[in-house]
């Protein structure tokens, strides 16, 4: 049995201590925002280190949720996260699957174009002009269509598709399955590890996105919650609408201030994705583990057999 030296134990101790301190350094600023959001503003203004609310209150969140803009922006954010993630994963997977086939005509040309756009872009102003001419200004589709495809996600998926056994597709072709059947019934289910990874990345990106709405959206009914948060922090018109909900007595007593409303809005905007992400991540990991134990060959073979049975009945 391998016996560790005292030097290894000392190194591991310092390494663990460093990682714990680094984790606390990352978590404490966010925890402090949460604590101050649940603390009365007059007590927060006294300063000091806050590890928990000294004067607990929900008044900051009451002010935030009194504005209908929060509810409409939440609906926009949730819908763009769900639809944007699904469409992006499916579209990118289809494109990556096509480029993974060496028999595809002009395959190298398409790959070259993709790599060019990876390193060079048209610039912000041409992109804004192009998107405006395409009718994406004040259009909900600006959240979905431009985000349907990503170069890096395509490269990751393409590499994974290339690693799949060719026998899976060959057996399905012999049984009469076409390309779409092979992709949706064999390749896509067999690629759950990369699909789950890209899906989680897209979901977090869609939830946190605000720059597209900042550039192309002026209607408040189409604003996502992140843009509302940005405007509240900068003190724009959306912030004034929220602060109007604060009564004069609350302002005079300093139980609620614009700064405390900003903190509450931050928690409202980023809290759900932080709470949901570990839950879905655990589900994905569990499903990927189950898929690994089940194996992909029996699944592909059963689908191919079903396809054969269907073709024989026609």
From TrEMBL:
The way this protein sits in the membrane is described as:
Multi-pass membrane protein
- The record lists the organism as Cohnella rhizosphaerae
**What are the UniProt keywords, alphabetically?**
Cell membrane, Membrane, Transmembrane, Transmembrane helix, Transport
GO:BP terms for this protein?
A: transmembrane transport
Recorded superkingdom: Bacteria
Location in the cell reads: Cell membrane
GO CC annotations, alphabetized = plasma membrane
Q: What is this protein called?
A: Carbohydrate ABC transporter permease
Would you identify the family this protein belongs to, as annotated?
A: Belongs to the binding-protein-dependent transport system permease family.
Q: Which residues form the ABC transmembrane type-1 domain?
A: 74-280
Query: Where is it chiefly localized?
Result: membrane
Does the keyword field hold Cell membrane?
yes
Kindly list the residue ranges recorded as spanning the membrane: 12-31, 74-97, 109-129, 141-161, 182-204, 259-280
InterPro entries assigned: MetI-like (IPR000515), MetI-like_sf (IPR035906)
């Amino acid at each position: 049995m391998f016996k560790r030296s005292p030097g290894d134990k000392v190194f591991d101790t310092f390494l663990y201590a460093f990682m714990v301190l680094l984790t606390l350094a990352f978590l404490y600023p966010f925890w402090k925002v949460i604590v101050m959001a649940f603390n009365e503003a007059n007590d927060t203004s006294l300063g000091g280190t806050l590890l928990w609310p000294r004067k607990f209150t929900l008044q900051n969140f009451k002010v935030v949720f009194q504005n209908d803009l929060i509810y409409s922006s939440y609906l926009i954010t949730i819908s763009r996260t769900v639809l944007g993630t699904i469409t992006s994963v499916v579209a990118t997977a289809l494109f990556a699957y096509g480029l993974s086939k060496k028999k595809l005509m002009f395959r190298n040309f398409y790959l070259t174009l993709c790599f060019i756009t990876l390193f060079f872009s048209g610039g912000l102003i041409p992109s804004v002009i192009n998107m405006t001419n395409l009718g994406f200004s004040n259009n909900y589709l600006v959240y979905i269509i431009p985000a349907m495809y990503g170069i890096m996600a395509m490269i990751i998926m393409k590499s994974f598709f290339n690693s799949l056994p060719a026998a899976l597709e060959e057996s399905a072709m012999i049984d009469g399955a076409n390309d779409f059947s092979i992709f949706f019934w064999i390749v896509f289910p067999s690629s759950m590890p990369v699909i789950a990874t890209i899906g989680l990345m897209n979901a977090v990106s869609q939830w946190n996105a605000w720059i597209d709405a900042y550039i192309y959206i002026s209607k408040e009914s189409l604003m996502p919650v992140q843009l509302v948060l940005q405007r509240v922090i900068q003190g724009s018109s959306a912030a004034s609408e929220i602060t109007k909900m604060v009564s004069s007595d609350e302002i005079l007593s300093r139980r609620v201030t614009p700064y405390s409303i900003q903190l509450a809005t931050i928690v409202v905007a980023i809290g759900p994705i932080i709470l949901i992400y570990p839950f879905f991540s655990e589900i994905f990991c569990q499903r990927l583990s189950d898929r690994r134990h089940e194996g992909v060959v029996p699944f592909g073979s059963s689908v191919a057999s079903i396809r054969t049975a269907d073709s024989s009945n026609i």
